[in-house]
Design a protein that fits this description.
This protein has 13 helices and 28 strands. It is α/β, with parallel strands linked by helices. Strands 4-5-8-12-13-14-17-18 form an eight-stranded parallel barrel, surrounded by five helices.
């Protein structure tokens, strides 16, 4: 039996020895980890500034999404956009001063693809895009201050161009924008370095709030299904090999009930949407939905504070709730403190297994993504631990793609958590890409993730997360994986830029290692 046995002995903060935990990693059973779970969105800064920083900052990121509320009314022909409720409902040049068609998207593509990362672009589907970039020089101007603003400050946007003659540059005088023309142009200018996929807009369950000026009425199940079928069909017509992501629900109440849509009729939106897209795909004789996409901003509370809010200093209860929050992604025994678990009758969320089972029942073969998420605490160790734990869970539970919302290189704790998987020695060394089953963890106190390297079967990597305030000794018996060398790199409180090296003693199959308090240790074993 090819196994890796890890025997853990933990000490509490009172130095009372805990019962040793024995963790078994079965090297025989290997499951590929999607390379696209190590992704990021551009944050709430000027997109040009973020793109300038990308070549140095990107280290290890495999996926980047150009999305968010700004892209719902993005006019690719001029780069004009509308801020929606995020910023006074103004039209402006936030996404691009240049009027060159697609310039913002082209810059995003060329910058991100140059590093080999995959790209997800947003296709606006709401039906209106910004017609101008202001003026907003004297004060922030809501578009509704303009008489007949819907016809003067916006342009109609359509899924398909009549006649099918898709050209570049597009006609900017026809008072219309066509999204199939946009996709067709992207297909011509994208690089072969990495995949480019398309998302069906952003958080339509909140349109009547975030984009009230162009969506005063909340869409129903039927509305968004018809909308997504139309636009997915248009995308696949010009880019048949691409992947279509949808519907990018904003969160729990979105993919459960589409924000209380009147035609819910006690149906789970996630299930109804999959059923409808499966039927539409059968009619079209091609798959119209490749990836069901959700956003996940935990509602967990600790010390009266929602964990996604960065508090300085962190309350101890908030810190602990944040560290435990990734368990709601999978753990059938964990009940967080939130309105979500209360709505379930104080039952666990176990998000990923639940959604994967729904996919299997309603539209098998559909992938799952979370293209916006975060756990807060981007600058503190609790945020780093939660982020690292989430990345491990994404790999273990077969998520296809994931993007942290709003991360930049200055938020060192969360960034260091990514690099524990993508660049743990700061020399480009990565966590393996073949997930190995792990048995025996104590989720309150620790998480252990293990992977082999498909290109180097003599290399095994572990990410060990110590969630306790005490050092935690590890006695590792590698059994059939005969270790000839081992090294460990540690992210801990205040140590983010350059990970600390940590001593690892080995003797053939035996390894001794002590994980520092509140730390992420990446251990590389070679045989």
């Amino acid at each position: 039996m090819l196994t890796l046995l890890i025997s853990l002995t933990a000490l509490s903060k009172f130095t009372t020895p805990l019962r040793a935990a024995e963790i078994i990693v079965d090297v025989r059973k290997q499951t590929p980890i999607s390379p696209y779970i190590y992704g990021v969105n551009y944050p709430d800064t000027w997109i040009d500034d973020w793109l300038k920083a990308w070549p140095a900052f990107h280290t290890g990121f495999t996926f980047a999404r150009e999305g968010g509320n700004r892209f719902t009314a993005y006019n690719w022909e001029t780069n004009a956009s509308n801020a929606g409720a995020d910023y006074f409902f103004e039209n402006d040049d936030y996404l691009g001063v240049s009027n060159e068609p697609g310039q913002t998207v082209h810059k995003f593509l060329s910058t991100v693809q140059a590093t080999g990362a995959a790209v997800l672009l947003t296709v606006p589907t709401l039906g209106y895009v910004a017609a101008d970039k202001g003026p907003n020089t004297d004060k922030h101007r809501d578009v509704n201050l303009t008489p007949n603003y819907l016809n003067t400050r916006f342009i109609r946007s359509y899924a398909t161009k009549p006649g099918g003659k898709l050209v570049y540059p597009p006609d900017t005088t026809d008072n219309a924008v066509y999204q199939d023309e946009f996709v067709n142009w992207v297909e011509k200018v994208k690089s072969p370095n990495s995949p480019v996929w398309f998302s069906l807009d952003n958080e339509p369950d909140l349109w009547h709030s975030t984009h009230l000026r162009i969506a005063p009425k909340a869409p129903t199940y039927a509305d968004i299904i018809a909308n997504n079928v139309e636009y997915a069909t248009a995308i696949k017509q010009v880019a048949p090999q691409t992947l279509v992501f949808g519907p990018s629900n904003y969160g729990w109440y979105g993919f459960r009930a589409f924000q209380g849509a009147p035609d819910a009729n006690n149906r789970i939106f996630f299930d109804a949407y999959l059923d409808a897209m499966r039927a539409a795909s059968a009619t079209a004789k091609k798959r119209l939905l490749d990836v069901y996409d959700i956003h996940w901003y935990p509602e967990a509370i600790g010390g009266g504070v929602r964990i996604i809010y960065n508090q300085a200093p962190d309350k101890p209860e908030t810190r602990e709730a944040r560290i435990q929050a990734p368990r709601s992604l999978w753990d059938p025994t964990y009940v967080e403190q939130s309105w979500i678990t209360k709505s379930l009758g104080n039952k666990p969320i176990a998000l990923l297994p639940d959604l994967q089972s729904r996919i299997a029942a309603h539209y098998p073969g559909t992938k799952l993504s979370i293209t916006e998420y975060e756990f807060g605490g981007r600058d503190v160790i609790s945020g780093a631990l939660a982020q690292a734990d989430a990345l491990g869970v994404f790999g273990r539970y077969g998520l296809f793609a994931a993007c942290h919302w709003g991360l930049n290189s200055g938020e060192k704790a969360a960034y260091a958590a990514f690099r524990s998987f993508t660049d743990f020695d700061r020399q480009g060394s990565r966590f393996g890409d073949l997930e190995l089953p792990v048995v025996g963890e104590s989720p309150v106190e620790d998480s252990v993730y293990a992977a082999l390297d498909s290109k180097d079967r003599g290399r095994l990597t572990l990410v060990v997360i110590n969630k306790t305030a005490s050092s935690k000794p590890f006695h590792i018996n590698s059994l059939a994986f005969h270790v000839r060398s081992a090294r460990a790199f540690v992210v801990k409180d205040g140590v983010y830029d350059s990970p600390a090296t940590s001593p690892v003693s080995t003797n053939y199959t035996m390894i001794n290692y002590s994980a520092p308090p509140l730390s992420i240790s990446t251990i590389e074993l070679r045989r």
